[in-house]
Amino acid sequence: MTTQFEIIRVGKLRNHRLNGQVFGDIGDNPGDDDFIQSIRERGVLQPLIVSADFTIISGHRRRQGAIEAGLEEVPCIIRSDLSEQSDIDFAWFDTNRNREMTTEQKARWFKALEGIESERARKRLKTKQIQPPANLPEARNGEGEAEKTSSPQGEAAEIAAKQVGMSRKTAKAAAAVVDVIDAKEQEGDHETAEKLRETLNTKSVSAAKAQADEISGKRPSQGEREQDRSKVMEARSLVTKAVRKIDEVDGYPDQHTKTLAALELTTQSLDEWKESI
Questions:
Q1: What is the pLDDT of residues 132-172, one digit of tens each?
Q2: What is the pLDDT of residues 42-100, one digit of tens each?
Q3: Entry pTM
Q4: Sequence spans of domains, the chain
Q5: Cα–Cα distance between 62 and 227 in angstroms, integer?
Q6: CA 246, CA 243: separation in Å to the nearest integer?
Q7: What percentage of the chain's residues is helix, strand, coil (to nearest 5)?
Q8: 3-96 has which fold?
Q9: What is 152-210 written as a DSSP string?
Q10: Which residues, in sequence order, are bridge partners of residue 73?
């Protein structure tokens, strides 16, 4: 890690591109009065950490507080080793990983990190040495099976979900919810977006996902759900009748044969039921 200390004009610094996406626009969340007054009286005591191109890695709130306090310059530690965008992004994630977040912020964190991890995985695949064909001995593992690798997207999702403390399924669901929130904000339907945000942050991801699906028309209406429930009950009834019919018949040599016959008759009954609906 290569660093150097420098006093830099606040106008030269720029917020990290993901900071607003995950934590909201810093301009919409100005520093509190005590914090600003402290900066006005004593200046920024803890230097900001910035990349080679002056992207803020740590210190967005301090920069905003300095602007509101009327300061023109702030102390910074420049990490000149951070020049590639992927390295800058990863450093930003590393700095903020222990920050307290709402469920919505975790979902946005997951989405952003998944994209970065996907890009890192693709780069690893490109730089990886070309493997021998799978039919050659050196390309096989100890059991003679060709080694399998997960896709960059799947691997990235697993890594990102782990970072936010969620399962992959839950993280994906939360990310889908914030997509609906953003869509409603863009449409100007702030009331619906805020209700969905409240459900996500105060109740659960599953409750928010059900609400989001209903808002976006992906979830069946109550009437449609009742109709589906009725169809399921009808199918269960057919299965029960099929099994009872087999129980009433003698002549099967063993329980295994009897079970197979029951399954075959059940399948026929379900096929007839599907054709009737």
A1: 555 544 444 444 444 444 565 678 888 889 988 999 999 99
A2: 999 999 999 999 999 999 999 999 999 999 999 999 999 998 888 898 899 888 888 88
A3: 0.62
A4: 3-96, 103-140+148-216, 222-276
A5: 57
A6: 5
A7: 65, 10, 25
A8: 3.90.1530
A9: HHHHHHHHHHHHTTS-HHHHHHHHHHHHHHHHHHHHT-HHHHHHHHHHHHHT-HHHHHH
A10: 9
